[in-house]
Amino acid sequence: MKAHRDETQEIRYGRMQEGSAPLGRRDFIRLGGLSSAMLFAGRMPVMAGPFTAGDLTAHLVPADKKLTAEWIASLTRRGEGEVFRGKELKYIGMPIGGIGCGQLYLAGDGRLWLWDIFKSNYAREKHEMRMDAMTMGGHYPKPVAIGEEYCEQNGAEVDQGFAIRVKKGEESQQRTLDIEGFPELSFRGEYPVGRVRYEDAGFPVEVQLEAFSPFVPLSAKDSALPVTVMRFSLSNPGDEPVEVELGGWLQNAVCPYAEDPTLGKRANALVRDEGLSSILSTIEGSGAITREHGYGSSALTVIDEEGVRVRGVSSLNKIRDAETFFSEIDGGSDEPAAKPLDETLLGGLSASTELAAGKTKVITFLISWYFPHHQKTDPGVARLFTARHYRSWFKSAVEVAAHVAKHREKLIDGTLLWNRAWYDSTLPHWLLDRAMIPLDCTATQTFHWFDGGRPWAWEGVDCCQGTCTHVFHYAQALARVFPELERTLREEVDYGVAFDPENGGIGYRGERKQLVADDGQAGTILRVYREHQMSPDDAFLKRLWPRVKQSIEYLMAKDPDGDGLLTGPQPHTLDAEWTGKISWLSSLYLAALAAGESMALELGDDAFAAKCGRIIDRGSREIVAELFDGEYFIHKPNKELGKHLNTNVGCHIDQVLGQAWSQQVGLRRVLPKKETVAALESLWKYNFAPDAGGYAIKHREIEQAFRWYAMEGEAGLLMTTFPKGGAKDAIPGDKLRSEKNPELWTGPGGYFNECMNGFEYQVAAHMVFEGEPESDLVERGLAIAKAVHERYGAAKRNPYNEIECSDHYARSMASYGVFLAACGFEYHGPRGQLGFAPKIRPDHFKAPFISAEGWGSYSQRIQEGEMEVRIELRKGKLALRSLKVEPQGLVPRQLVVNHLGKPVAAGLKIEDGRALIEFSEALEVQAGADLRIHLS
């Protein structure tokens, strides 16, 4: 231990050793302020260092991050997609159901687990068990693995799996398609698609699984189906034909929490319909079997293929291995079967085909369900909702399967088309992965969609209700991928049940509580403008504008002197009211005014636009004069209003959030560039910690609040640090400790010593937007985002579950903003405006994009005084009146535009170094067509 107190001792920070278990608190040994996790960092992949004890100043965050050259290069390198094997598969749980259809995980070996698709919060005591496990970030230091007790408590145990039998000549082999049958298998997750390769040189057939629920951008209904597609590709690499039989089994789990045999029986039946064969699982019971028990149906289906023979068995004994399964299939009956509720009933299907040498065959299984009786009970609002959205779409699980089979091209092929489009890019694989992953919260118990058409969400799984404004306004993914859902939330929730027509306030938890959070209020106004931009016309904005205008006036009333700074108590997302002058909240207010200004101008309300503009102009000056200390923006509490939580002279993560929001939606600046960049540089200097977990422990005695979102030795951007003092003044009193357990965070706490992903992503996106291509600021923004990505490394925890106070936390959908920033994406659907300013390798760039009515790819090449631009639309259509591109110093004089093989008349302007191409007539680019532009 003495050696580690030596100031010359070299310490490297890095990720946990691959394959190692996550460290718990008791595993940590404090060594002169440095953690045991660092001691063994020499055998870990290293991101930063070496450091000496002298590098850790009194502030505890080294100013020089000493990022290694290799790690810096990894930020922008295209690289390869991460493939997980062995111990890395332990925690894999990719949500694999449709939007609002419950929660079902795909394991790393292709099995399905955590079957929480039946009835959310089916028993209050189980709900409370789940809350105890998940809140306070409990699953971050102690991630859930497949088969653990938590899964039994929070999702029904459902027996399910697949097996394969191959005959080659006189020889036959059979194995389960899982880690036991193929120990060397590998997993690649590209949400929404999970891929498993079942690898074994001694097995005569190569097998790959592609598992997903239909996911088609811009089509929420097609992406909200209660079904999981299991698409198996079977390839024969040999020189002789083989006979292949692929089979699956599924337990009848209808009414999974009912075990009283007097209530009825579970029943299976083989159903053959045009194009598919299914084992339909239902229940035969008295009137006592109701929605309370998870009433409905499930089905295991094979989509029929030419040359494939399908067999079905309605009742199987317990499957122990592949031999048992095929023995049951060979000797079983396709007659209907039923068993009492206290017994287990399984059914199975198999598909057989001959596979010629060198050929590949695809066999598609579907696992579908129909459990529409949701009965969500929101504490404080008695049974707001009774059924899931899909109740009126179908009548049984077989109907779900038939719908998918009938619309296979749109749903299955469409999902794979989007998957290819997303990864057909020059951007780094890690960035594409992480930008999309948090959207998976919509396919968990975080997000619900009810039969009245209204979406509703917790902040995280079963935690903090009401589609909370101050959390969801950070999220960027849902609005860009499924904008219709966000438009519905604005109209039916924020400006519907949550709206107070008396004063324009928006209750931050929907109808449950009419308290207004100032940040949520401003963020919701900004979201209206974003949703308008992601619309094909201005009908949405026209409908909402009177209420939106009133909501802006609500904020104006909190700025009585019109100086652009909010006054009085200001409630916000850190579960408190702060007072005084706060750059974070006032910058959001200014951004909301900028959105109001733009919306008013579009609708011809020039007087209101001018009023907004005057306050913005004044506020942009006042916020710098009052709150910029030369390095960053501070908080000046109003001491006359008493003692409140505050950040005083601390460096706070959201201090320039208003300008970050302005960048996301292309508004005019509300904070000057110079001071904004200085603030972002200060966040890097003072808040980005190579050992964020170690910092949290060291500051625990001051802040009295502690939750694990970064373990020792893991990097992250801290919420607030106090390089100039003030930490002890931030949290008044000693009221945050639990009397029963001093170790427990009880809140509302400081939150300051934590890392929280959604906040980190918004700063990362802002840095990338503000920086010049491949500049230090862009690099730092990417470093912050990649630090989060590496905290969710598969060797340590589930990469597909970002945690903040609960699982699958919605705020993490801010990650998509980093992707938008990397593309320099600008879009305004009603105006037909599209723009790109790539920040990573702009001379050779390609990335996907989504517009109001279509999606595709944008690419550009710059070389030898010429720039080639191409827009390829893969789905839908794109209405276009202008395109703005970044020629990287090239000053083009000539412009050639070609669409459908014909020249298009267009004009060229250079504005602030960017090329604005305006088409003489509005273009409509259709799927399958492309637009080509040549600048020279």
TrEMBL record:
Signal peptide segment: none
MF annotations from Gene Ontology: hydrolase activity, acting on glycosyl bonds
SUPFAM superfamilies: Six-hairpin glycosidases
Domain Glycosyl-hydrolase family 116 catalytic region: 519-817
Stretches assigned to coiled coil: none
Domain of life: Bacteria
Entry's EC annotation: 3.2.1.-
Domain Glycosyl-hydrolase family 116 N-terminal: 93-410
Database matches in InterPro entries: 6-hairpin_glycosidase_sf, 6hp_glycosidase-like_sf, GH116_catalytic, GH116_N, Non-lysos_glucosylceramidase, TAT_signal
Pfam families for this protein: DUF608, Glyco_hydr_116N
Keywords noted in UniProt: Glycosidase, Hydrolase
Protein name in UniProt: GH116 family glycosyl-hydrolase
Species: Haloferula chungangensis
